[in-house]
Amino acid sequence: MKRLCASDGLRGTLSARFELGLVQTRYGKVPLEGFAIRAPDGAVRGYHNVCPHRGQPLDLGDGKLFSSDGLLECQAHGAYFDPSSGLCVRGACPGRSLRGLPLVEQDGALWIDERELEPVDDPDER
Ligand code: FES
Asked: How many domains in the chain?
């Protein structure tokens, strides 16, 4: 497993962003990013930082992911996602979901199990 950050970096609405590697797209190889947040139930959740609406990152590079009502908000066109499930509950792509990541919180840190990562060929085509 690969260590991503300390657990206390995910207090409140703080998030952690990290690179997942390079993926081949129609435009060449591009970095694929993920993020982790602490959901309302206290558990850590991680998702690809790729909105299912049009494939853009949810944030504008500032790590701001939460809306004022506690949902994850895509800054591009205002899709809102349940932080616990990744399901779009309001806005641009209702019923579609963020793609989850195999994260583990252990020993005061957040880890990703890279063996459980599913291959992604082109995030724009999802
Ligand atoms: S790309 Fe996220 S709402 Fe459009």
From this structure: 1
Q: Which atom of ligand 1 is nearest to the CA of 77?
A: 3
Using an 8 Å Cβ cutoff, are 2 and 111 in contact?
yes
Cβ 96 under 6 angstroms from ligand 1:
no
124 lies in some domain? no
- In sequence order, the 6+-apart residues with CB closer than 8 A to the CB of 2 are 111, 112, 114
The CATH number for 82's domain is 2.102.10.10
Ligand 1 centre distance from Cα of residue 54 (Å): 5
For residues 64 and 46, what is the distance between their CA atoms, to the nearest angstrom? 15
Q: For 36-85, how does the pLDDT look when each residue is reduced to its tens digit (9 = 90+)?
A: 999 999 999 999 999 999 999 999 888 789 999 999 999 999 999 999 99
Q: What's the domain range around 65?
A: 2-112
Query: Which residue among 54, 59, 97 is best mutated to probe the pocket of ligand 1, counting the most ligand atoms within 8 A of its Cβ?
Result: 54
